[in-house]
Amino acid sequence: LIAFFQPKVLAGRRVLITAGPTTERIDPVRVISNRSSGKTGYAIARAAREAGAAVTLVSGPTALNTPHGVQRINVESARQMHDAVMAHAAAADIFIAVAAVADWHVANASDHKLKKIEGQAVSGPPALKFAPNPDILADVAQMPNRPWCVGFAAETENLHEYAAAKRRRKGIPLLVGNLAQESMDADTTTFILFDDAGVHPLPRLPKTDAARKLIQAIAHRSPQHPP
Ligand code: CTP
Ligand code: CA
């Protein structure tokens, strides 16, 4: 009922959101990943939908249900997430990058399951080689007809300094900072908004409420639909 009475501040707007972790294959049965439950991204998708937006959620593997009325596209790797986002970014008015994207993938991934013993010999631990993944947010932010972009930064230290620098480096109007150790696996979070005007801290809130506050902040800052 509370959801129904949220102000429709994003009515008619198309919002594209990434959420959750990405996973990068070592072999068909093993991955390396980032720690992310997806709760924050899914709460933002739900809040954007409540606010009247048409929402597309590109999600890495999570244990969460799709929020009502949200179009969800499932991906595993950062490269798959990049492809899915690029296919939808031109049609979006607003892009919110919440996913914990793996910065690297395994360059020498095996197409069969690695065995501890191959033939007679003990294989020993695999020597993994890594190659960089595309930066999804930076690529969307550089599109000529880019949507209005929001980034996230979960840091463990120097939050203010790192977040402000990250916003400038990615060339985006709004970045949301939080402390990884307070937010990860938790049902509450403390957002700090960084924009051209400076730093705007929000109180510690349940992720549902923090998401609604963020959607209000995005609606106020982003350009309105042409009439
Ligand atoms: N991001 C992305 N694609 C990537 C890496 C990050 O879209 N390959 C997005 C995240 O979803 C987030 C923002 O960029 O919105 C910042 O991610 P973060 O990992 O904090 O920044 P990085 O630029 O990867 O820097 P670092 O990990 O070194 O702090
Ligand atoms: Ca990163």
What does this structure look like?
- The longest helix is centred in the last third of the chain and has 15 residues, at 207-221.
- The protein contains 6 helices and 14 strands.
- The chain has helices spanning 39-50, 78-89, 136-141, 159-170, 180-183, 207-221; strands spanning 14-19, 23-27, 30-33, 54-59, 71-74, 94-97, 104-106, 117-118, 121-122, 130-132, 148-155, 174-179, 188-195, 198-206.
- It is of the alpha/beta class and 227 residues long.
- An 8-stranded mixed beta sheet has the order 5-4-1-6-11-12-13-14, sandwiched between helices.
- The protein binds cytidine-5'-triphosphate and calcium ion.
- One of its GO terms (cellular component) is phosphopantothenoylcysteine decarboxylase complex.
- CTP binds at residues 103, 113, 134-137, 152, 166, 170.
- Catalyzes two steps in the biosynthesis of coenzyme A. In the first step cysteine is conjugated to 4'-phosphopantothenate to form 4-phosphopantothenoylcysteine, in the latter compound is decarboxylated to form 4'-phosphopantotheine.
- Residues 15-227 are annotated as: Phosphopantothenate--cysteine ligase.
- GO terms for molecular function: FMN binding; metal ion binding; phosphopantothenate--cysteine ligase activity; phosphopantothenoylcysteine decarboxylase activity.
